[in-house]
Amino acid sequence: MAGTVLGLGPGVLLLQLLWGLALLLCLALSRAAGRARFAVVLVTLGAAVLSAALLLFPREEERPAAAAADEIVDTFFIGRFVLLAVMSLVFLGCLFLLLIYHLMEPMYAKPLPSS
């Protein structure tokens, strides 16, 4: 089995890296002018498709390995799901703040030149 980082396997780290890069690319493209701004949708869809491919096509075999005498218990299972829930709430909050402060920013009329 491959090594773990903070109790997480390489697949979870790869998904975090994928979505982190997608988020950074979306932030960079949101500042672009013209049609390049709409590439954010393609980046998001590409990250979603790649995530689905990574989740649906696992690297391990379909048949489980022979059962060992000792049962392995995941003691950090609940902690990981709490962390996932908190990260999801923070992500949704950030999207909401992006909507309010960036996408719905009012455009004020420029004053007419006086002669």
Descriptive overview:
The structure is a single chain. This protein has 115 residues and is mainly alpha-helical. Helices cover 57% and strands 0% of the residues. It contains three helices and no strands. The protein has helices at 10-30, 39-56, 77-103. The longest helix has 27 residues, at 77-103. The termini are far apart. The mean pLDDT is 83.
What secondary-structure arrangement, pairings included, does this model have?
Blueprint: H1 10-30, H2 39-56, H3 77-103
Attribute tags:
mainly alpha, 115 residues, 0% strand, elongated, 3 helices
Please sum up the structure shown.
The protein is mainly alpha-helical and 115 residues long. The chain has helices at 10-30, 39-56, 77-103. The chain contains 3 helices and no strands.
What letter string, H or E per element, gives the SSE order? HHH
Overall mean pLDDT? 83
Terminal residue distance: 77 Å
The secondary-structure class comes to mainly alpha
Provide the low-confidence segments as ranges: none
The main sheet comes to: none
State the helical fraction. Answer: 55-70%
How would the global form be characterised? Answer: elongated
Number of helices: 3
Q: How many beta-strand segments?
A: 0
State which percent range the strand residues make up.
under 5%
Output the radius of gyration.
22 Å
